[in-house]
Amino acid sequence: MTLPPTTPMAPGAHKFPQVTGIRWFNVAILVLTPLIAVYGLAFVPLVTKTTVFACGYYLFSMLGITAGYHRLWSHRSYNACLPLQIFLMLGGISSVQGSCYFWARSHRSHHRWTDTEKDPYDSSRGLFWTHLGWIIFKTKLRSGPVDSSDLGTDPLVQWTHYNYFPLAAVFGYALPALIPALWNDFWGGFCFSGALRLTIAHHCTFAINSLAHYLGSTPYDDRLSPRDHLLSAILTMGEGYHNFHHQFPMDYRNAYLWYQYDPTKWFIAVCKLLGLASNLRVFPSNEIAKGALTMQLKHLKKVQDSIIWPREVEQLPIVTWDNFQEESKSRPLILVSGFIHDVSTFLDQHPGGAACLTKNTGKDMTAAFFGGVYRHSNAAHNLMSMMRVGILAGGVCPPNQSIPPSQVLFVARRQQPDTQPDTPTQ
Description:
GO terms for molecular function: iron ion binding; stearoyl-CoA 9-desaturase activity. Residues 325-393 form the Cytochrome b5 heme-binding domain. Keywords: Electron transport, Fatty acid biosynthesis, Fatty acid metabolism, Heme, Iron, Lipid biosynthesis, Lipid metabolism, Membrane, Metal-binding, Oxidoreductase, Transmembrane, Transmembrane helix, Transport. Stearoyl-CoA desaturase that utilizes O(2) and electrons from reduced cytochrome b5 to introduce the first double bond into saturated fatty acyl-CoA substrates. By secondary structure, the protein is α+β, with helices and mostly antiparallel strands. Helices cover 49% and strands 6% of the residues. The strands form three sheets. Strands 5-8-7-6 form a four-stranded mixed sheet. Strands 1-3 form a two-stranded antiparallel sheet. It has a two-stranded antiparallel ribbon with strand order 2-4. α3 (82-94) packs across α8 and α8 (164-181) packs across α9. The protein starts with 18 loop residues before the first strand and ends in a 24-residue tail after the last helix.
């Protein structure tokens, strides 16, 4: 039996999808909220207590997304006790970005189908699509299937999913205004703790899907779009080291190196110290190092391929001693490590003067070159290898002297073995 062909879901450039409708509720939230924030900045006095509360409530909302919706429920990168789960769940709800069930399921689909047509926020469709388009437009696109059975059986996730709208109204809008009302600043709370906080939280979170796939470097893998960048990390509470995250998604850290900015990682680590979190998952350091080395070697291979190297030994003619002596009468040829070098283009540049070379034409200068007269630098050895014009027949070529220092370590591409069967399966 011959297996039927299939169309692979490979990463590639995809056009902005055809819009079939508008999600007007989402549009209203994303338009009215910043307008209220702008109105507040223009006309509502800023009270110190409200400012401090707004900043604290913003951290509460962002941690609910980064440490809760994302690292706990989307990736199960650690375990949290029930009080911490409730804290993070309410924080995520206060950011008004949908229920945890919706958010985590979409995010898993994004990881499973990254940069394909089944990716709900496919980066190849452009920054606007990944930042806002997928949220406000209805299309015929369908997210790729993922296993979300654990979310379906989690009582907290399910209860908040079915009660999301009243919870979002209370924690997203009511509490941020009512708490500042205790010090007679209801409107300041409504505009700053409510609308301004939500606006910043929305777009900083959306930047995970947009900027983190466009801005920065690819230190672990460059086959897909996720990038690492400090700016993205600052905007997203540490989520900006996205290249690392897509390579090692179940690691509770987004920033692997100690000096990288990842306050969400620090928060989870502190929760572990307090006994609130456990089983913090980390990818083996050895395998992370392999990913980093792979990309470093890939970069070095590009640099290596851009450099002009000496001619291969197989391309050089083999010359007898008599021919070497005869040729040396018409041009300055010097023997070093079994190789014959034409130094005519270097006479005027030699630090010791041209006479040092011309008086030794036709001689074996191996011992002198490697310390008998002067121990030449790696740069001198590399440069001299570019002047090779032949190999002396029967000459001695010491291994530690024949290879230029720049070629002692050399990046080679290893071909994958052929794993295809010799005959088709019947």
